[in-house]
Amino acid sequence: RKEVEQDPGPFNVPEGATVAFNCTYSNSASQSFFWYRQDCRKEPKLLMSVYSSGNEDGRFTAQLNRASQYISLLIRDSKLSDSATYLCVVKTSYDKVIFGPGTSLSVIP
Amino acid sequence: DARVTQTPRDKVTEMGQEVTMRCQPILGHNTVFWYRQTMMQGLELLAYFRNRAPLDDSGMPKDRFSAEMPDATLATLKIQPSEPRDSAVYFCASALGALDSVYTDTQYFGPGTRLTVL
To answer: Which end of chain B is less packed: N or C, by CB atoms within 10 Å?
Structure first.
């Protein structure tokens, strides 16, 4: 089993739709969690950190469930510009960072 | 607007040749990561440095890959000899990590070096 797994993609959704991605991790000692976004042929960029209490940034909401060892990302009112690959990132211990395989999202007009 | 720079952006070479990729981290960042990304494997961590010292290079094939930080403004990843299976995009990322913290600040990625080994 991979240390970090994500929903298989691609997700094709119409503009304005709400879409949710899940990510599971195997190491219960994982310390911190992030979502990165990667556009086609570009580098990954931090989208948001995931806090224990859950956090929101505009149309994006991240949740963490330590008991079930999963992280979610919810995107409301999808825009064309949200089309990208979303990478779940887990930090297990001092600087050991693992990227998930990514979930591809295409927002369709 | 501080950013990580990488050179070259694209490299096509023949099997057996030496390849050197360079990275300039953001000024003041003390942690540098090297990643490799392929369609099949996704993003894999090859090695990372803290204050120029290698902390973990377990993800790197030791027989042909080597990573160094000659100074705080330059990180290099070398492949010798290169093989077709090394074809991938190689990313460098830097972060301002705290020595006594289990939390790592945001990683800022460079644009990557797209390597093709024929």
So the answer is: N
Q: Are strands B74-79 and A103-108 parallel, antiparallel or unpaired?
A: unpaired
The span from the CA of A25 to the CA of A47, in Å, is 19
Maximum CA pair distance of chain A? 43
In tens, the pLDDT along A30-89 reads 888 999 999 999 999 999 989 887 899 999 999 999 999 999 999 999 999 999 999 999
Closest CB to B43: pick one of A31, A45, A99. A99
Considering only residues A2 and B17, tell me which one the structure prediction assigns the higher pLDDT.
Answer: B17
Q: What's the token pair of residue A62? A: 């991240």
What residues of B are in contact with residue A48 (Cβ under 8 Å)?
A: none
pLDDT at B102 over 50: no
Tell me if A97 and B42 make a contact (CB, 8 A cut-off).
no
State how far the alpha carbon of B61 is from the alpha carbons of A18, A40, B7, B83, B86, in Å. 42, 27, 21, 12, 10
Q: Which stretches within B1-118 are classed as H helix? A: none
Cβ neighbours around A14 below 10 Å, total: 9
Find how far residue A31's CA is from the centre of its chain: 16
- Residues 99..118 of B with a Cβ closer than 8 Å to A: which? 102-104, 106-107, 109-112
